[in-house]
Amino acid sequence: MARVVKKFGGTSVADLERIRSVATIVKAAVDAGDQVVVVVSAMSGVTNQLVGLVGDASPLYDAREYDSVVATGEQVTAGLTAITLQQMGVDARSWLGWQVPVRTTDAHGSARIEEIETELLDERLNSGQVAVIAGFQGIGPDNRITTLGRGGSDTTAVAFAAALQADRCDIYTDVDGVYTTDPRIVSQASKLDYITYEEMLEMASLGAKVLQTRSVELAMRYRVPLQVLSSFSDRPGTMVVDEEDIVEQAEISGIAYSSDEAKITIEQVADRPGVSAAIFGPLADANINVDMIVQNVGAEGDSTDVTFTVPRADMERSVKVIEGLSDDLGYTSLRADDNVVKVSVIGVGMRSHAGIAAKMFSTLAEKGINIQVISTSEIKVSVLIPDEYTELALRALHTAYQLDAA
Amino acid sequence: MARVVKKFGGTSVADLERIRSVATIVKAAVDAGDQVVVVVSAMSGVTNQLVGLVGDASPLYDAREYDSVVATGEQVTAGLTAITLQQMGVDARSWLGWQVPVRTTDAHGSARIEEIETELLDERLNSGQVAVIAGFQGIGPDNRITTLGRGGSDTTAVAFAAALQADRCDIYTDVDGVYTTDPRIVSQASKLDYITYEEMLEMASLGAKVLQTRSVELAMRYRVPLQVLSSFSDRPGTMVVDEEDIVEQAEISGIAYSSDEAKITIEQVADRPGVSAAIFGPLADANINVDMIVQNVGAEGDSTDVTFTVPRADMERSVKVIEGLSDDLGYTSLRADDNVVKVSVIGVGMRSHAGIAAKMFSTLAEKGINIQVISTSEIKVSVLIPDEYTELALRALHTAYQLDAA
Prior knowledge:
Two copies of one chain form a homodimer. Chain A is α/β, with parallel strands linked by helices. Helix content of chain A is 34%, strand content 26%. The first copy, chain A, has a domain at 3-174: 3-Layer(aba) Sandwich (Carbamate kinase). Chain A has 13 helices and 20 strands.
């Protein structure tokens, strides 16, 4: 007997037929003796429709009202799922965020879970009842409904798994696991059986949109074993676990890429103490999230070139901020380029295997791909390259690191 | 300055454009210095859609889950209405049943309001904030969402008006008031400026579907002045008030009809003590609501004919119940007929005017309409006639009682 949280995303509960498939999966676990908590998203399309209504009512809407409107999507799915389970003879009831309650901060629209009361749920689970939780929602200190931000149902699922000390948290989606890279680009991509939390975090934040980043952080903090799998097939998925639970480490686990990047280069900035602060302080004040940064000493010794990346949507705004600093910085030219892609190789194996980065650079060089910016962390190496080389780079790296499916 | 509850039905909040019209009406009242409580229904069509989903999920659904799903309709409208008001510069917030809270019985699907906590609302209203209440819903003793049954938002509105000691409760709908009879059948029908609670109750329960019966009972009990009016025009509607507030009483106020009737006749039942109980006891046990009853002494002195009406949907079931009693009752024949209509003339003026019933019978006789069953109460006379005469009877009576519009 295990206690398991199973989370089903929008496409997995898109209509009553899909909800019946979900109920069949849940019933199988119950019949096998498991205690099951189900976390559901809104039926696919519903959240967008509700968000659209709110935006049409007023572009500057009250986030508290937004939350109250948008949270109905999960409320409907939770009720329908409980009814469907009951019809299959499974004891079940729905729980809304305020009923549990799931206490959150008051940051409406992107609240964080602070506490989940588990006493009553514990009792019901022990008595064999399935708890169907409306994902994505909680209740704030103002006694009003809060939502956790897009993709928040993943976080709901992991938070319940942690609070209820579940043995596993299964995240059902429309793909059957985490892949070595995007299978739409590299047909040789293969599903990973295991990946570590740290790697998954890098994968998630680098654009592999399988899990919400916050849910992975939470799973890592509370050591909740996560499984990513498909509700459309019954194959096992990818387990996201602690590093020590993976016996044999490959050099790298996966290759991620992100097109949501823009590169900005400031040429011949006066090279004096405090110049970095003079550039990045104002960008931070403008709420622009700077990612990669490179500083080169320019041709003349007293000036330097600074290159950095920002989210593509913030490129124009970033240029305006820097232009406003031109008197102070005294640069010669300012260039912005959004035809770039960030490609990253990721793997905890990097800690023990040498030469991972060197292999990346030489592989790209062999293909004639020019690297514009490099950044590294303990378990990843990222490079910025022209975006027309995305496919070539991913394929070449996938082969070089021996990730191609047999 | 007055404190007013304004309730808007489904067609009045059918889309964002209609919600903007509602907000304009509310803003006008606020600008005039009124304290305003708005009660909203689900956008038209939404409740039916949600009820359909629940029914498709399982014909035998859990009423608690039904309530949780169906209550989302009003939750969405309340949020959108609050946002729209805010956009027009009106301070407003939405309130869900559990937030107020509106405490109800645990009869899920048709709960009754037991208590409304008003302290916080009172405070907000006094500070000038508009309270937008999600109609139709409350919270049961089990801490789960309850709903009040179809049309329940009228009851929500009246209950808030009573609890908050409002000066008036405006019920906005898609007709501009209560008419002397159905204008689709009698083009001469005219809008009433005033009607008493008692008359409105008879009108409501006899098929004029303007207000939910329960809401009128509640308004009468707490002496809440009700106004029925249209959100699509700005003409005054019909005031539902105490009898003493109406200066001049017409003989009758309106003529109602109901096609939801079926007549059952049992011929030559043994005429012995207890025979009525032997018939109507088993029907009551089968949850069949008997309305009109007539008992005639038959041709032979020791037997009697019994005729009664039941809801049309219960006719077949009623026949089966009576057939099951044939040994005991020893009747000679049993006939059922659903080609009947109940026509009623209604008016508190009946108490002071003589000959109201006689005028009804002679008017129908002049048109050659045969009366099958008669029943009377203090303020109404109802007759059962063949349903093919519905239009003829309504027109003739409308003229006879001088209700025709000038």
